[in-house]
Amino acid sequence: MVYRLRKFSEFWAGAVKELPALSMALLDAPIYFLPLFRHLLRLKIPVIALSQNIESLAPHQVCHNRALRLLTEDLEIFMRCRLVITVSREECFLLSNLGIRALFVPYYPVQPIQARLLAVREQRRTTAKHGILMVGTTKNLPTRDGMERAAAYWHEHRLDRDVGKLIIGGYQSETYFDPRPFGDSIDFRGTLTNEQMDSLLSRVKALLAYQRSGAGVLTRNREMLMAGIPVL
Prior knowledge:
This protein is of the alpha/beta class and about 230 residues long. Helices cover about 40% and strands about 15% of the residues. It is built from 10 helices and 8 strands. It has a 4-stranded parallel beta sheet with strand order 1-2-3-4, with helices on one face. A 4-stranded parallel beta sheet has the order 7-6-5-8, with helices on one face. The longest helix has 16 residues, at about 140-155. The radius of gyration is 21 Å and the shape is elongated. The two termini are about 30 Å apart.
C-alpha cells in the first residue's frame, strides 16, 4: 500500500502544473504522499494535513526498532504544514505542545449514516436485547488483536452464561478472524451488510470496543452513542 500511494503521489505531483493556480492543498496523511508533498512545498503552495491518526504511533504498522525514527519523520512533515487537523484530542495536544499548529475537529457522521443511526435508536425502544457486539475491520491488526483477546477471555470465563454471547463481525472478518478456538461462547457473523448491521445494532445490549494499542480515535464509539447503544 505504501509503495502504491508513493507512485500515485509521483504521478499527481507531475499533474499539478496542469491544474489552475492552487491556493491550498489538503493531504490525508502526508507521509504516504511525500513526492506530492515536497512538490507542493517547492511551489510554495500551503499544505493542510488531515491526520486520521499519527501513523508511527500505531505499533502494529511499524517495525519496533524504527518507530522513533518514523515518528520523527512524521513530526517533521507536520511542522512544514500550515495546519494539521486531527480527530483525536490527544494527538492535537501532542502536536500543539511540540509547536505544530494543530486543530482538533471531532468526528461526526455524515447525514446518510446519521439517519441510519437514529433509525436504530428508534428501533431499540421496543426490542429485546441479547449479547455484546464487537465489530470492526479485522484486517486492521489492533482491531483483530482486541477481538481475539476479548473472545479468548469470553470463552475462558464462559461469560456467555452471564451476559450472553460475544457477537463478532466486520468487513472481511471471515478472512482474517478464526472463531473456531473460542467455541460456542462466540456468535461469529463475518462481513455484514448495512441491513444486517442495523438489525444487530437494534438488538444488542452494548458494543465492546477493545484495543490495547493504536492511535487516532475510535469513530465508531460516537456512532454507537448516537444510535443509543452503550459502549464498553
